[in-house]
Amino acid sequence: MIDARIKFRHLQTFVEVARQKSVVKAADLLNVTQPAVTKTIRELEEVLGVSVFERDGRGIKITRYGEVFLLHAGAALTALRQGLDSVSQERSGDVTPIRIGALPTVSTRIMPRAMGLFLEEKTGARIKIVTGENAVLLEQLRVGDLDLVVGRLAAPDRMTGFSFEHLYSEQVVFVVRAGHPLLSDKQSVFAHLGDYPVLMPTRASIIRPFVERFLIANGIAALPNQIETVSDSFGRAFVRSSDAIWIISNGVVATDIDDGLLAALPIDTSETKGPVGLTMRTDAIPSLPLSMLMQTIREAAEAVAAKG
Q1: How far apart are CA 107 and CA 131, in angstroms?
Q2: Cβ contacts of residue 21 below 8 Å, gap of 6+?
Q3: 20 and 149 assigned to the same domain
Q4: pTM of this structure
């Protein structure tokens, strides 16, 4: 039986604090005071009889009980949001958008092709596509702000409450502008890697551990001229106008390489290969339009994989 003491504000506040990992940030986003957020969380913990957050240095982290409750709280808010959207849709004739989180690795090659196939079906569904770091997109998926995330498989500890459907595998590449000195250098690329600016994936990005292990295995402990970024537009522009080296998932730059605008350095990076696919909440039931979009993504991925 549902405890009548648990209100919508308890769920909303709890999910936002869990998402932001900060009472202060949650208070700002909810437009309430910090003491109000703290009081609401304490009320929730009193009802549950357990702590949902605990101190972690100067910040906070969610407890094991909190992780369990988050799965259900997020699902409850999602169901309520869908109910409100349905009523609004009936009154205004508007259509609830399908919300997709797309990592850069699929934004360039997979999603444009998939969207083209989807639009041919003339479903009338609205699509909202957002990009960002994998951790951010997964958190939005967890709390119901996204319906689907398309990209690399996350680490096991981040996949609690999610299901993953493998589509294809891809690896990291080291790319430079056409005519870069390293393309004609007879010496080892790794011997000269520190001579140039290197664009690295950020520490929160999903491919960063693969890149770090690969560099260490090849004798590179540190890079003196390192720039961290997940912006494919910046990376593309910077590399094309300089001698920088961009370490990035192949899917982000495959078209640039095919067009001759960028070139991959002759390095065997097969050990950085990882699965790319569809991530959903395990408790989610896709709508018909979302199911159709997932199918067009599968078809687009199959075409890209076949092309190599």
Answers
A1: 8
A2: 59, 60, 61, 62
A3: no
A4: 0.66
Provide the residue range defining the domain that includes 301. Answer: 95-169+274-307
Please answer whether residues 184 and 176 qualify as being in contact, where contact means their C-beta atoms are separated by less than 8 angstroms: no
Q: What CA–CA distance (Å, rounded) separates 274 from 170?
A: 6
Give a yes or no: residue 2 inside a domain. no
The domain tally of the chain equals: 3
Q: Which residues of 40-53 are buried (b: 16+ CB within 10 A; e: fewer)?
A: bbebbbeebeeebb
**Which own/partner contact pairs does 54-60 have at CB distance under 8 Å and 24+ positions apart?**
59/21, 59/22, 60/17, 60/21, 60/22, 60/23
- What is d(CA 275, CA 252) in angstroms, rounded to the nearest whole number? 15
Q: Element (H or E) spanning 280, and its range?
A: strand 274-281
- Please indicate, yes or no, if residue 265 is contained in any of the structural domains: yes
181 shares its domain with 158: no
- The pLDDT value given to residue 165: 94
As given in the structure block, the two tokens for residue 168 are 């294809």
pLDDT digits (tens, 9 = 90+) for 135-183: 888 888 988 889 999 988 888 888 888 999 999 998 999 999 998 988 8
CATH for 39: 1.10.10.10
